[in-house]
């Protein structure tokens, strides 16, 4: 095994994920782990899943047969039932099933389960089959007197190439729970590939696909990322709000979905240190900012959506901007919002400029929704930021401050004067 394959083989997690690039050995790892599990007991039922029957017939079944032959284990493959029966007092049997229809994952209990290429499914379907599989994974292994075998426990393992921010990302990264662990393997980690394999992929794929299909990284594979240079490691900062900090707050108005991103300025560069999303309306947001910051000695300056001058969160006579000002918050806003692409360009230039400098930093721990939105938001078919995924609210909030304080045009002519900072 490669180092990564061996690491995964030895994991004790109840729900494990092997995520890797092309040729990183996902199917080989699945076969090794499935055989290991089958050798726990002749009672063991090992369920192995592929997205389609063709993949069972062409890839999974031949690989399992090869492993059994290598170990000298006699077997019979019933192609009608898609079950491999073994004739060994120390080895269980293998049930081979597809992921095409979750309602057909019934009628058996498995001791261990192995799921191949789960991220090729739509997110809802992947979630449905995962729930079915873990529900079926409940077989107990017992000795001759009915006592559960020592060290035996049920486990489900998945193996996939990352296909964007889909089921695997949601389950093992974004919403990771106790018992869920992953091992990532790059294509280059497999020394048994042809010498020109990696180079041929490098020559054929754009950078985003290289990160996914060679490095095993979760990246946006949709029609172009709006913020392609953002990196949660390279743009990360551990900065937090400290006593006496002036706080610069970008704000977007949306009833029940109001968003605000709180920045501090260090060495003249902005750092997003806190986010507030899903707030009901402007009065609630104003109260929140006062309770958390203004009433605790911070000067709070709001950089809102300019449309707030004409809208109302509570009644037609009271604008959003008036509500903020009446709460004692300073508001800085132009008469109109900048053009969307100007705001995006300003944001991208702060994320990574032409000289390779990353001026914008984000405390990714305190701003998880902003971080994910910067990683994931694609363009729609009209070349504008896609709003269908709900990622735009927190990004709009963050962008209003950046576009006001660090506009592209301003930075082209001066490196000293930052409007609004008293220089």
UniProtKB/TrEMBL annotation:
<protein>
    <submittedName>
        <fullName>Terminase</fullName>
    </submittedName>
</protein>
<dbReference type="InterPro" id="IPR035421">
    <property type="entry name" value="Terminase_6C"/>
</dbReference>
<dbReference type="InterPro" id="IPR027417">
    <property type="entry name" value="P-loop_NTPase"/>
</dbReference>
<dbReference type="Pfam" id="PF17289">
    <property type="entry name" value="Terminase_6C"/>
</dbReference>
<dbReference type="Pfam" id="PF03237">
    <property type="entry name" value="Terminase_6N"/>
</dbReference>
<feature type="domain" description="Terminase large subunit gp17-like C-terminal">
    <location>
        <begin position="249"/>
        <end position="403"/>
    </location>
</feature>
<keyword id="KW-1188">Viral release from host cell</keyword>
